[in-house]
C-alpha cells in the first residue's frame, strides 16, 4: 500500500532510497525479518557513518549515510508488504533518526573547527526543517483517500497498540517521541496552525518542501563530506533554515 493516493503522489526528492528500499523489503517479505529488525539495521548503518566521520573516512561515511536512507525506506515498505503496520516501528524509526542526526553533527563538530553551540543551533535547525516537511506531509497523507494513516497530524495522546504489538512498548516509545520531538512539533504548529484545514497541497509545493526531508538533508551531508566541505556543513543548515518562513509564507499565501 502506498503512503498516498495516486492523485496526491509527488516527486519526493528526499525519498530517493525508496526503489532500492522496496527491492530490499521484497527480499525479506517471506522471511522472519520484521520491520523492527530493518529499523535496527539502519541504526547500525548510521553508527558506522558516525565512526567513519570521526576517523576521517568521509567517502565511507557518505556511503553509510546513503545506505541508512535506503534501509530507512525499507522498514516501512516491509511493514506494508507484510501488512503489519505498528506504532512501535513508527516511533522507533523517528527516535533513531533524531539521535543519529545529533550523532552526525556532533561527529562533524569534533573533527572540524565548528563550535559546539553553533552545531547545536544547526541540529535544532535541521529538526525544524524536517518537522515542517513531516507536518505538511502527514496532513496530505491523512487527507489522501487510500493513503497510509499510521502517523497523526497532532500526536498528543498515546495511541492504542495495533494487533501484534505491545501497548507497553507503544506507550514507552510514544513518551520518548514526545520528549524529543514535542517542542519542534509545537513550534511548527504555532507558525502554521491552520495548515490542517487545507484540502490538499499541490505537487509542486510538496516537491519543493521535500528538500527539507531527512533523506535530502542526509544526501547534502553525504555530498559535502567527500568533497572536503565539512567546515561548511553546519553553517549551511543554519542558513538553510531561512526557507522555513519562506515555505510557510508560500503555503499561507497561495494554498488554502
Automatic annotation (TrEMBL):
GO terms for molecular function: phosphotransferase activity, for other substituted phosphate groups. PROSITE patterns: CDP_ALCOHOL_P_TRANSF (PS00379). Pfam families: CDP-OH_P_transf (PF01066). One of its GO terms (biological process) is phospholipid biosynthetic process. The chain crosses the membrane at residues 33-51, 95-126, 166-184, 204-226, 232-250. One of its GO terms (cellular component) is membrane. Keywords: Membrane, Transferase, Transmembrane, Transmembrane helix. InterPro entries: CDP-OH_P_trans (IPR000462), CDP-OH_PTrfase_TM_dom (IPR043130), CDP_ALCOHOL_P_TRANSF_CS (IPR048254). Belongs to the CDP-alcohol phosphatidyltransferase class-I family. This is CDP-alcohol phosphatidyltransferase. The lineage of its organism: Bacteria, Pseudomonadati, Bacteroidota, Flavobacteriia, Flavobacteriales.
